[in-house]
Amino acid sequence: MSEKVTVGLLGLGVVGSGVIKLIENHQQKLAHQLGCNVQVKRVLVRDLDKSRDVDIEEDLLTTNPDDVLNDPDIDVIVEVMGGVNEAKDYILKAFTSKKHVVSANKDLVALHGPELQDAATHNKCDFYYEASVAGGIPILRGIVDGLSSDRIQKVMGIVNGTTNYILTQMDSEGVSYENALKEAQELGFAEADPTSDVEGLDAARKMAILGRLAFSTPVDLEDVEVSGIKGIELEDLQYGDQLGYTMKLIGYANFDNHELEINVQPTLLAKSHPLAAVKNEFNAVYVYGDAVGETMFYGPGAGSLPTATAIVSDVVTVIKNMRLGVTGNQFVEPHFKKELKTSDKRYAQYYVRLFAKDEAGVFSTISALFHDQDISFKRILQTPVNKGEVAEIIFITHQTSLENFQQALEKLESLDAVLEVKSYYKVEGDAIS
Ligand code: NAP
Ligand code: HSE
């Protein structure tokens, strides 16, 4: 192999600048590991005149993608431009030109990852995307290599920094949702349009990628049920806190008997759960394996240099594969077929907050209704709102099927005595009280 491996960058924004800095600052370590230098030769941008966050020779920049994709000297393309259609076209072109690709693009990998992987394999090229999930945390390699001997049963992730920041600020500082979101935007964690953060889609994309790799099964983005954090009220966080829980946007995936449950939803997590300690913009992924039991991977889920570490590590893997002549293998080959778990097989505990008439017999009607659905209560709180008129009732159920819970909820909403079911959330873990 030659004395240097040449990289072409598509994009020089937050992450691309980090990649340039990391390659420059860690050149000696890279050369020691690889026995060759890593050099960035061309960089695609949209605007040549924009001021950059990194020192770079002007003639490396181009607005013509062909200057990067058709340069015969370039071995590895790093795609850090974002977006879906153009990025996909460029990556497919790169594979046709027998160039390996490293991408940070969760939107693209969640939607078209399997197709891109097929194109890579067909052209005997590598395709890695460690940075697409949880930024600087080496979670994809942790799952694929570190836990390759185990059978992963469950993956739970706090994989969106913006929503974790908002919920932490609401919970610990009493900041309103709107103000916490504004702060997350000012601090730069949120996407330019934060809708995909707060509505859970960003986390869903990352969970689809995690699910594929953890369970070696095809997971489509549409398989991930999503609900976001809009509409969560401070009261729910306060009652949760009183009962020993903290609210997190949790990506949850579980696979047994070829049946998959995968979703992203606000969840009241027992404070004793390892994920409950993950605050502000930090990310963490909890993985439960048959043999290993509980593991957790924690760190920065975004940011210039943290994300660049994942990308440059992928580049190192590609170069090692080139050296060994083993490029073109899949990260993980899907070999289990998948069916989505029906609601009668999905078990969880639930928190419910409702307003009811404050009169004799109301609570026993509610509890009889849940008893009929085979659901028992684990914790109950009742507070009079207007003495003798309205009471606020909060309860947490024991484990029940989603099917039974949904039926109970429907009946609850139609009771005369129930004025409003204000909120309900999944509950995970046992609170110490
Ligand atoms: P960014 O700051 O907006 O940078 C995007 C870069 O790509 C810019 O340099 C832009 O050029 C260039 N670009 C975009 N579209 C282009 C086009 N059509 N033609 C030529 N150049 C184009 O984005 P980023 O935050 O670095 O994110 C890049 C990717 O990494 C995304 O897929 C993102 O989801 C992913 N990611 C980001 C983070 C993070 O912390 N930011 C973490 C994990 C993953 P100009 O500079 O000339 O405008
Ligand atoms: N908007 C994302 C987040 C950035 O808040 O986690 C990293 O993907």
What does this structure look like?
With 433 residues, the chain is of the alpha/beta class. The protein has three domains: 153 residues, 3-Layer(aba) Sandwich (Rossmann fold), CATH 3.40.50; 162 residues, 2-Layer Sandwich (Dihydrodipicolinate Reductase, domain 2); 86 residues, Alpha-Beta Plaits, CATH 3.30.70. The longest helix has 21 residues. It is elongated. The chain has 14 helices and 18 strands. Strands 7, 8, 9, 10, 11, 12, 13, 14, 15, 16, 17 and 18 form a twelve-stranded mixed β-sheet that branches. A hairpin with a 2-residue loop joins strand 9 and strand 10. The chain binds NADP nicotinamide-adenine-dinucleotide phosphate (NAP) and L-homoserine (HSE). L-homoserine binds next to helix 7. It catalyses: L-homoserine + NADP(+) = L-aspartate 4-semialdehyde + NADPH + H(+). Keywords: Amino-acid biosynthesis, Metal-binding, Methionine biosynthesis, NAD, NADP, Oxidoreductase, Sodium, Threonine biosynthesis.
Give the key terms.
28% strand, six-stranded parallel sheet, 433 residues, Homoserine dehydrogenase, Dihydrodipicolinate Reductase, domain 2, alpha/beta
At a glance:
The active site is at 206 (proton donor). The chain is α/β, with parallel strands linked by helices and 433 residues long.
How do the strands and helices of this protein lay out in sequence?
Layout: E1 4-10, H1 14-25, H2 27-34, E2 37-44, E3 61-62, H3 65-69, E4 76-79, H4 85-96, E5 100-103, H5 106-122, E6 127-128, H6 139-146, E7 152-158, H7 161-173, H8 177-187, H9 195-198, H10 201-215, E8 225-226, H11 234-243, E9 245-256, E10 259-270, E11 282-289, E12 293-300, H12 304-324, E13 339-340, E14 347-357, H13 362-372, E15 377-386, E16 390-397, E17 400-401, H14 402-414, E18 418-428
Helix pairs in contact: 1-12, 4-5, 5-10, 7-8, 13-14
Bound molecules: NADP nicotinamide-adenine-dinucleotide phosphate and L-homoserine.
